[in-house]
Design goal:
Layout (H helix, E strand, L loop, with lengths): L10 E5 L5 H16 L15 H9 L1 E7 L2 E9 L2 E7 L8 H13 L4 E5 L3 H9 L2 E11 L2 E10 L11 E4 L2
Parallel strand pairs: 1-8
Antiparallel strand pairs: 1-2, 2-3, 3-4, 5-7, 6-7
Length: 172
């Protein structure tokens, strides 16, 4: 896929619908190894559709997807003040989709927004830090029985955000 034309295409954010399940699972399953790298044993990977706990957490969250030219390329989930899900198709890394989704999540979750990331997930850590999140707690966790170090991040609302010009949001 050529990403040269993608930045010129607007990112559409819309509410998740049940028909998005298979593509959301695919995005999760392709992005998850990037998230685990440097944080947790690669054997800890479980596809989203095969992890009952993640499925429950996913369905409990209020979810939105990012689309480019009609194709779902990422998603965010909010569970009260928690950014519970944020994944972008690896083919679309680095063009602002994660930022757009996170900014929507912040709008929905409010000034008490928080999340948890794996300590070795530098891509996510940089994104969250750039939007005003700070580490408030480090703890040992596990992923599918494999140990990992986790960071609880909390949003600090004094952070100044730059406007994003190419986003359109439509409620379903």
């Amino acid at each position: 896929m050529s990403t040269q034309l993608i930045p010129q295409s607007p990112i559409l954010l819309r509410a998740y619908c049940d028909e998005d399940w298979s593509v959301v699972c695919d995005i999760h399953d392709r992005a998850r190894p990037h998230e685990l790298k440097g944080s947790c044993d690669a054997n800890s990977f479980l596809p989203l559709a095969e992890d009952p706990e993640d499925i429950d957490n996913f369905h409990r969250s209020e979810k939105f997807v990012a689309c480019i030219q009609g194709q779902v390329v990422g998603f965010v989930g909010i569970d009260e003040n928690l950014v519970s899900w944020l994944y972008v198709d690896p083919d679309y890394f680095g063009i602002g989709i994660g930022r757009e989704l996170l900014q929507l999540g912040l709008e929905l979750a409010g000034s008490q927004t928080w999340t948890v990331v794996l300590s070795g997930n530098t891509r996510a850590r940089r994104l969250y830090a750039s939007e005003g999140f700070q580490v408030v707690h480090t703890f040992e966790g596990s992923n599918a029985g494999y140990p990992c170090t986790c960071l609880e991040l909390s949003f600090k609302p004094n952070h100044i955000k730059l406007p994003q010009e190419q986003t359109q949001f439509y409620a379903a």
